[in-house]
Specification:
- By secondary structure, the protein is an alpha/beta fold.
- The protein has one domain (about 5-230): Amidase signature (AS) enzymes.
- It has helices at about 5, 10-20, 25-45, 50-65, 110-115, 160-165, 185-190, 220-230, and strands spanning about 45-50, 80, 120-125, 135-140, 140-145, 170-175, 190-195, 215-220.
- The protein has a six-stranded mixed beta sheet, sandwiched between helices.
């Protein structure tokens, strides 16, 4: 099997190929870096690519699979992290020339959980400056372009993650969402992403927006996002808003359907008067 063909497979499929030794984490990483070299100069999904660090991660994963002792559910899978989230050994530039280029000394909570389960960290993906708008361009990195049409936007502010997911520049991608920063690029790039319930994935450091700012997955498929959420969810002592340990495997009920579920809707929430503006219809 050609390694480049594997990059269109689901995360679970790739892990199964590792288990059967049909392909190795180093081979998948090499194919991923080759694809980045071909496509990222057009679409601009990455701020930084840590080739040597990723190779070290992949070699360590390959040895664990050789021994039959993987670290977890995602051991050997190439992962990217949006450049608003701290990753040990990489700078966090937040799309701005005003930030410090010194590498971080710690991992954010979801990054730490991904690392413990054997993730191969490719690098940091682009964001609008400080993640403030739903288009991904910044003074630091320029314009990130849509994976389907480079003349169009990728959406934002997790645009680099959306592009990387769509083009197979990694398998699992970590973004942030305050007012749509995961959901907008997911829709623009034709991938899956959502804003998880606040507190399920711990955050550190928090943004100035505090509870508005969540972290979550962008992936090619829903099962991949469920796998990623299963790995990342849980409390962290650095996050004073973190929820309890739920120990949920979010993959378990994906095929159950929605029969019996109900949606609650309130016009006023019991207190709020909603202003309704009249719609002016054009004549002719």
């Amino acid at each position: 099997m050609l390694a480049d063909e594997v990059l269109s497979r689901s995360a679970a499929d790739i892990v199964a190929l590792y288990r059967s030794r049909e392909i190795s984490p180093v081979e998948v990483l090499t194919a991923t870096l080759d694809r980045i070299d071909r496509l990222d100069r057009i679409h601009n999904a990455f701020v930084v690519i840590d080739r040597q660090g990723a190779l070290n991660d992949a070699r360590a994963s390959e040895e664990r699979w050789r021994r039959g002792q993987p670290n977890g559910l995602i051991d050997g899978l190439p992962v990217t992290v949006k450049d608003l989230i701290v990753v040990k050994g990489m700078p966090t530039r937040r799309g701005s020339h005003t930030t410090n280029p010194v590498p971080s000394e710690e991992d954010g909570p979801p990054v730490a959980r991904l690392r413990r389960q054997g993730a191969v960290f490719l690098g940091k993906t682009t964001t609008s400056e400080f993640g403030w708008k739903a288009v991904t361009d910044s003074p630091l990195t320029g314009v990130t372009r849509n994976p389907w049409n480079a003349h169009l936007t990728s959406g934002g502010s997790s645009g680099g993650a959306g592009v990387a997911a769509a083009l197979g520049l990694g398998i699992l991608h970590l973004g942030t969402d305050g007012g749509g920063s995961i959901r907008v690029p997911a829709s623009f790039c034709g991938v899956f992403g959502f804003k998880p319930t606040f507190g399920v994935i711990s955050v550190h450091p928090h943004s100035p927006a505090l509870s508005l700012w969540h972290q979550g997955p962008l992936t090619r498929t829903v099962p991949d996002a469920a796998l990623m959420l299963t790995v990342m969810a849980g409390p962290d002592s650095r996050d004073w808003y973190a929820g309890p340990e739920l120990n949920i495997d979010y993959r378990n009920r994906l095929s159950d359907g929605i029969r019996g579920f109900r949606i609650a809707y309130s016009r006023t929430l019991g207190y709020a008067k909603v202003s309704v503006w009249p719609i002016r219809r054009s004549r002719g």
